[in-house]
Amino acid sequence: MQITEQPSLYDHLEKKSVREILEDINQEDQKVALAVQKAIPQIEELVNQIVPRMKQGGRIFYMGAGTSGRLGVLDASEIPPTFGMSPNWIIGLIAGGDTALRNPVEGAEDDENRGWEELVEHQINEKDTVIGIAASGTTPYVIGALREARKHGVLTGCITSNPDSPMAAEADVAIEMIVGPEYVTGSSRMKSGTGQKMILNMISTSVMIQLGRVKGNRMVNMQLTNHKLIERGTQMIMDELGLDHDRAQKLLLLHGSVKKAIDAYQHS
Questions:
Q1: pLDDT digits (tens, 9 = 90+) for 196-244
Q2: What residues does the SIS domain cover (predicted)?
């Protein structure tokens, strides 16, 4: 039996108090970061192969179904506002399309050909990377996409919570994060989902830092989409250039990003 389907270490959940339930879940969640830690060598290997490809214009495609697909779409959607990158650099694809973000789409994850068809629609090429996400490691939509991508010389990676899965067999770099059985048996939106979110954050953030989208420890390329972010950007420019608030903010709004504002000021 797959680890993700094994019975919970806890039973009679309906008889527990709210406090007991919360403490049990928290106890299980504490295992997640340690499971991710063990997978760092594989995460590192994947990032090290992605960065040179992206420097040549390659993209990352995240692919998954259900929770895994939603988390891929979430991570991809946060790259443009955080790092000022075009939404075409990291793309999240979910079985069943955007409808599946809110509603289950019957049978979508069982179509072994659809994933690759979607990649072809995006003009997939050998500079790109496809990362499959599936707690079980058995999702046909993802496995089919990885298999075809690999045949076409595309770098493939995967994130799973079961060792030696069919999905891992199709990946050049398999990230196996073994978090153990879920609190509610088989509910992989819990520990597996938490671990996937952590690993996706690690991949995208480290790639963006390597591509020069962070200066010091700051998001100097973030999009100025609300008052909080404009104020944060203004503060960065004040700290970096020693300007007063109004002058820093004018500079920021003129150039549209912290990085561009600082570069323009220093070269004026």
A1: 999 999 999 999 999 999 999 999 999 999 999 999 999 999 999 999 9
A2: 50-213
Three-state DSSP class for 16?
coil
Helical H segments across the chain, by residue range: 18-38, 40-55, 66-77, 79-83, 114-121, 140-151, 166-169, 191-210, 227-241, 245-255, 258-266
Give the containing element (helix H, strand E) for 131. strand 129-133
Is 170 in the same domain as 250?
no
Kindly state whether residues 89 and 146 are assigned to the same domain: yes
The answer to whether 42 and 175 have CB atoms below 8 angstroms apart is yes
pLDDT digits (tens, 9 = 90+) for 88-138: 999 999 999 999 999 999 899 999 999 999 999 999 999 999 999 999 999
List alpha helices for 112-244, DSSP H: 114-121, 140-151, 166-169, 191-210, 227-241
CATH number of the domain that 15 lies in? 3.40.50.10490
Residues carrying an active site annotation: 78, 109
The C-alpha atoms of residue 258 and residue 262 are separated, in whole angstroms, by 6
Region class of 66: left (phi > 0), else alpha (psi between -120 and 50), else beta: left
| Angstrom distance (rounded) from CA 219 to CA 127 | 26
Q: Distance between CA 268 and CA 20 in Å, rounded?
A: 62
210 contact partners, CB below 8 Å, separation of at least 6: 47, 51
CA distance linking residue 213 with residue 52, whole number of Å? 15
Q: What does the block give as tokens for 198?
A: 């952590």
Query: Can you tell me the distance from the alpha carbon of 131 to that of 255, in angstroms, rounded to the nearest whole number?
Result: 35
Range of the domain at 233: 215-267
**Main-chain phi, psi angles of 230, to 5 degrees:** -65, -40
Return d(Cα 69, Cα 72) in angstroms, integer: 5
